[in-house]
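WARN  no MSA supplied for this record, continuing single-sequence
INFO  ligand: magnesium ion
INFO  echoing inputs
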Amino acid sequence: MTQNNHQPKIKDQPLNANRHTRPQTAPSAIVDFISHSVTQTRRCGSQLAQHLTPGTIILLEGDLGAGKTTFTKGVAQGLGVEGYVNSPTFTLVNEYEGRLPVYHLDCYRLENGQEALDFGIEEYLYGDGITIIEWPERIREIWPESYIRVRLSYLTETKRSLRLEPVGPAYVGLLQEFKKSAFGSFQ
Ligand SMILES: Nc1ncnc2c1ncn2[C@@H]1O[C@H](COP(=O)(O)OP(=O)(O)O)[C@@H](O)[C@H]1O
Ligand SMILES: [Mg+2]
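INFO  complex generated
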């Protein structure tokens, strides 16, 4: 797999869950909205997919049933992946071919970042595909320097809140463009 240069290598950094200082994020790059249906959550993912570039990492936070896999299905669909996308809870990663390769990881069963490194997660973090990670909370010590953070929360049986924000400068412009095309505004 070819390597992108977006991220410093984890193995060159101390494993420390507190190494991230929270940068100021431009409000124009933050997307906050309420999804009223599975379709809307999927559509959000598929519209985001139109703006994704090789090497993009998306961390999906949220409880069981919040909609992480639903959102991922939308991203995969938007990237032209054909076939069924489901959570790789037991296999840790599923790979799909679309406009770009899609690596869908689920860290639910991992205890910590070291286990993910032992599995070989760096291959996915530094590849040229789109890497989408469910349950990134499990591997917080090895979060990359920059990523798109998506937080989903259960509101009612059919409603979910979604918040997308860039962490690190790499994805500010991407999310601004997504916000403009999906919601018609920069603010
Ligand atoms: N607005 C919504 N967005 C996403 N999922 C929803 C929504 N409303 C209801 N759901 C239901 O919530 C569940 C979400 O499941 P899933 O996407 O697998 O969550 P997770 O991967 O976070 O555990 C599905 O059963 C889906 O039908
Ligand atoms: Mg899931």
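Residues 35, 37-38, 41, 62, 64-70, 87, 134, 158-160 surround adenosine-5'-diphosphate (ligand 1) (CB under 6 Å).
INFO  checksum written, moving to next record
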